[in-house]
Amino acid sequence: MVELNLPEYAFKVKKREDGSSWAIWDRLRERWVALTPEEWVRQHFVEWLITDREFPAALMGNEVSLSQNGIARRCDTIVADRTGAPLVIVEYKAPSIQVTQKTFDQIVRYNMVLHAKYLIVSNGLEHYCCQIDYDNNSYSFLEQIPHYSEL
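-> structure tokens emitted (151 positions)
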């Protein structure tokens, strides 16, 4: 896998039983998942949020289902506040995929349902964090991703 702009972590990785592909242990879903380039980014970023930014793993979920206008969708990662309400939505792309306006459009569509205060997008090489100000109908990009206690 590609080296990311994130610390290295010791993940559990194994060859699938049929030998055709690799799997990685997802600590939030507590199961083995296909090791794709996007999954490589997700696992690194989640680990970084937990270890470096002190996000509580118990308040995080990967591949969280939601319904938007009757269409089933899945958010890559959702982080809740201490009351269980969505606080952060994270969207991942493979390192080979450039983060574009289309990426932000996707996460904003999810946020129309969830109303999170923070939106994060990462392809493992570039990371963007946006804070939503619902009172003033505005948003601002942050220079860095805050620690959980700062959200």
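The mean pLDDT is 94.
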